[in-house]
Amino acid sequence: MSSSTTTILLYTRMLQSLNLHKPHINQVLLDLLVQRKETWLAFQVYMDMVELGFGSSDVENVTFENVVRLLCRDGRIQKARNVVKKVIAIGLEPSRLVINEIATGYCEKKDFEDVLSFFVEIKRPPDVLAGNKIISSLCSNFGTERADFFMQEFEQLGFSPDEITFGILIGWSCHEGKLKNAFTYLSEILSRGLKPDVFSYNALISGVFIEGLWKHAWDIFLEMVDGGITPNLSTFKVLLAGYCKARRFDEVKVTVGEMMDRGLVHISTVEDLLSEAFMVLGLNPLAVRVKRDNDVGFSKTEFFDNLGNGLYLETDLDEYDKTVSGVLEDSMIPDFNSLVMKQCEIGNLKAALAMLEEMVRWGQELSLSALTVSVKGLCASNSLIKAVTCLLEKVPKLANQLDQETLNLLVQAYCKKGFVHSGRKILDGMLQRHLTIKTETYTTLLMGLCKKGSLRDLQDYWNLAQNNKWLPGLEDCKALVGSLCQQEMLKEALELLESMLVTYPQFRLEIWDLILEKLCVTGHTSIAHDLVEKVKQECCILDHTAYSHLINGFIEEKRFSEAYMVFDMMLAKNLVPSLDASVQLISQLCRADRFDKAIALKEICLREHPSFSLSVHSALLNGFCKMGKSGEAANLFMVMLSKGLCPDTKVYNMLVQGHCQASNSRKVGELLGVMIRRNLSLSISSYRKLVRFMCMKGRVLKALSVKELMLRDNHSPHLIIYNIMVFYLLSTGNISHVNTLLDEIQEKGLPLDEVTYDFLVYGFCQCGDMSSSMQYLTAMISKELRPSSRSLRVVISCLCAEGKLEKALDLSQEMELRGWSHGSIVQHAIIEGLLSHGKLQEAENFLNRMVEKGLIPENINYDYLIKRFCGYGRLDKAVDLLNIMLKKGNVPNSVSYDSLIHGFCACNKLDQAMDFHTEMLDRNLKPSINTWDWLVQTFCKNGRTVEAEKLLISSVQIGEIPTREMYCSVINRYRYENNLSKASELLQAMQQIGYDPDFKTHWSLISNLSNSNDKDNGNGNCSQGFLSRLLSESGFSREKDSKAKLR
C-alpha cells in the first residue's frame, strides 16, 4: 500500500473514531479514490458511509455508481454485489447503470448462475440491455435451451423481452439447426405485438435454405416486406446465396431484379443478371458459368431450369459451395464488428455509429480491431469527435488496449478540436503504458494548452516534451512560438528559437524574423529589441523586416520615442521600414511634431514603394489633420491631385475632420460640396465631428441638414445617426430641437435603444431639465435597459443637490434591486444628503447594504466619507470604509488617516491612533503637521511623555518641522515630571530650529535648576557652570545681566 493510500485510510479511520464524518468530506474522498482507481479503499470507505447513514442524495447516488463501476471493472463482482445489497437495505434503488455493470461483470466471468441468483436476491429484473447481453452470452456459450430457461426465469421477476431478445434466440436457433424453435420465437414476437428485426428475418431465410426448404424463402421475404420491414443488402445476399446453393438461377435473376427496383444495384438490361449476383456474393463472375447441357443423354446436367433445360455449373464447385454456405452461416447471427469495420472503411461513420448502438442492443461485445478502426475513422471526422469519448467510456478495458498509433491520432484529434483535457488524459495513459508519443502529438497538445489549458499544465507538458527530445516542424514552430509569447512563456519560446536555429540553419533569417514578429505583436518589443542587439553583436545581419517589426511593436505599445530611435538607426544603415511600419510611423512622427522626419520618410517610401503612393500620402495627410495643420494638409491634397492621384473617401473624411478641428467653416463647406458631387459618403467619425463643430458654432440647422444627408446616403443604422445628433444638441443646450428629433424618430418607427435613452437621461439632466431626465430614466429602466454609470451618477447628484433626497433614494433602491453598483460619487451624494438631514444611522445602514449586496465597484473612493464620519465621531464606520478601500486595492489619502488619528486622539484611544499613524508612514503617506501636533499633545496630556518625545523626534527625521507648541508641551511635561535634563535637551533642540522659549517656561526651568544647586553643596562650581551655560545658550549672558542691574 502506498504512503498516500495509507494516509487516506488513516484519515478515514480518524474521522470515524472522532465521529467527524461529513457527507461532503466522504464525497471528496471517494471521488479521489475512484479517480486513482483505489478499488479496495473505495469499497471500504463507501461501506462505512452506508453504515453511518449517508447515501440518499443525488450526488451520493453518483458516487455509489462510480464505486460499483470501479469494483466491476476491477473484477470484484461479489464486492459490488454486497454494496448493492447494503444500499437496497437502507431503502435506496440501484440505478440501471449499477445493475448493468454487475450483469456485465458476471457475463465476462461466465458466472451465469450467479447473475441469476443476483437478480433473484435483489428481487428486480434486468433491463432489456442487460437481459439481452446475458441471453446472447448464454447462447454463444451454452446454447439456446439454457438461454431460454434464463429468459423465463427473468420473466418471472418482471423482465420484458423485446424483439431483439427473441431475435438473438432466433439467430442462434437457426445456427443450431433448430428451425422449428426459431419460428416459434418469431410467433412469440408477433403475438406480443412486437416488430421483428430485419436480422431475425435474415436468419430465418438463411435457416430455411440450409435445411433445403428454399421454396419457402420467398414467402418469408414477402411476409417481411408486408410487415413493414425494409430488407437490407444482407437480406438479398442471403436470398442470392440460398438460391445459388439450391441451383435456382431463375429465382436468382428475380432477386437481382428486386434489388434493381430498390436501387441496391445498378446494371443495364443487356448485362448478365447472374454475373451481378455472383459479384454481390463475392464470386468472380468470369470464373462461374451456368451452362446448358446440350448432350442428348444429359451427361453433364446437375439441375434443371423452369423450362426443363438441363444445366450445369462450370467452376470450382468446392470453392463455390464454400462461399455461398459461408454467406448463409454468417447471416444467421449478425456480426456487428464486421459491419462496423465495413462502414468505417467506406467512410460511412454515421452508419458505423448506428451499428455500434445496435451491437449494444444485441448484447454483443466490441472487438479491439473494430474499436481501433472506429476510433481512427471518428478522429478523421470534423464533426464526430465527441462520439469517440462516448465510445471509449463504454469500453474502458478495450480503450486501455489501443495501440500507440491510434492513441497518438486520438490525442491529436482531441487537441485540434479543443478537447484538451481529454487529450491530456489519453496522453497520460500512454505514458503509464510506456508507449511512444509522436512529435505531432506533443505539438498539438502544447498548441491546445496554449489556447485553453492552464499555464502550469503548459509548463509541465513542455518540460515533458523537451525531456523526450521533441522538436516540431518549421511550420508548427511558427504557430507555437506565437502561442508561447501570448502565454508569457518567453523562456520556452526562446529555447524553441535556439533549437530551430540549430535544426534549420538554412532558414536562419526567416526564424529570426518569426520570433521578432511574435514578440512584437504580443507586447514584448523590448525583448525583441534586446535580441536584435545581441544578433548585431554576433555579426549577424538582419534585414529591414526585423527593424520594421520593432517599429510596429513600439508604436502598438505607445512607446513612440523607441520607435523613432529604431527609425533613426534604420536610416543610418540605409534601411527602409516596411510599408505598414512606414505608414504608422508617418502619422506618429506628425503627432510628435517631427514633420521634417515624416516628410522625409514619405519621400523614401515613394521612392521604394511607388505603387503605394496614395497610401503614403494619405498617412502624411492624416498626420497633418490630426495635429491641426489644416493648411499643410490642404497643400498636400493639392500635390496629390497634381500627381494624378485620385483621393478616396477616406482621404476626404480625413480632411473634413481636420478642418473641423481647425474650425475652418469655409473649407468644411467646400469639402462637403465636393463629396456630395462625387457621391462620396461621410464616415460616422466625420459626421460626429461635423455635428459637434456646427452645434458649438450655433449652426444647428446646418447640422440637421448634414443629418438628412447621412440618412439619405449613409449605410450606417439610422438610429446611430440620430443618437449622435441628440447627444450634441443636448450638449449645447438645444432642447427644443431634441424634442423635434424625438418626434421624427417616433414617426419613422425607430425604437429607442440603450444609447439613445442614456444620452437623453444625461443630456436633459445637464441642461437642468430634471423632469425629462427622470422621465426617460424611468422608461429606460422599465424596458430592462441599463443606464451608464455616468448617467446614474449625474442624476443622483442633481437630485441630492436640489434637495430631492427621497427620489434619489428611490432610484438607488431600483439600482439595488438590479444589482447595479454604486460608484463613489453616487454614494457620496446620497450619504451627504442623509447627513444634511441629520439621518446619521440611515447613512450607516445604506453603506452596510452596499457591502452586503456587493454593490461596491473596484475603484471605490471613500476619502471624503471617512473624513465626514470622523467628524461625527463614528470612527468604527470610518475604519470600515477605509478597510473596504484597502480590500479593493485602493489606498486612502493622507487626509483619511489624519481624520482617523484626530478622532482616536479625541477619544484618548492613543494605541489605535498610533496604529493608523504607523500604517500611514508604511504607505509613504505624510501626516499633516496638525496630526503630529495632536498626537504629541495628546500623549503629553495622558502622561506618556517618552512616546510624545519619540513622535517629536520622528517628525524631524522625516523632514517635518515640529511646531513651537509641540516642543513646549513635551518640555513642560518633563518639567512637571522633574526630568530637568530631558527638558533642557529639548529646550536646546527647540532653540536650534529658531524657536525662543516663553519666559515662564524658561524661568521655571532656571528656578528648578537653582533649587537643585542649593541642595547640592558639594558641587557648587559645577552647578554654577551648568546654570551659566544654560543661561548663555538661552540668550541670557552674565554681561547682559550685569548691565541690567546697573540700570
Automatic annotation (TrEMBL):
Segments crossing the lipid bilayer: none
Family annotation (InterPro entries): Mito_RNA_Proc_CCM1, PPR_rpt, TPR-like_helical_dom_sf, TPR_mt
Annotated ranges, domain Pentatricopeptide repeat-containing protein-mitochondrial: 742-845
Highest taxon in the source lineage: Eukaryota
Record flagged with keyword Iron: no
Entry GO CC: mitochondrion
PPR repeats: 60-94, 162-196, 197-231, 232-266, 403-437, 543-577, 613-647, 648-682, 683-717, 753-787, 788-822, 823-857, 858-892, 893-927, 928-962
Alphabetically ordered keywords of this record: Repeat
Keyword GTP-binding appears in the UniProt entry: no
Protein family according to the UniProt entry: Belongs to the PPR family. P subfamily.
Protein name as catalogued: Pentatricopeptide repeat-containing protein-mitochondrial domain-containing protein
